[in-house]
Amino acid sequence: MSSDIYRIAIDGPSGAGKSTIAKAVAKKLNIDYIDTGAMYRAIGYKMSVCGVYPENQEAVNSMLAVTDIDFDDGCIYLDGRDVSDHIRTPEMSMMASVCSTIPEVREKLVEIQRGMAERKSVIMDGRDIGTNVLTDAEVKIYLTASDEERAQRRFLELQEKGDPQTYDEVLEDIRQRDHNDMTRKLNPLRKAEDAVELDTTGMDIDQVVDRVLEIVAEKTA
Ligand code: DC
Question: CA–CA separation, 174 vs 168, rounded Å?
Answer without folding.
Answer: 10
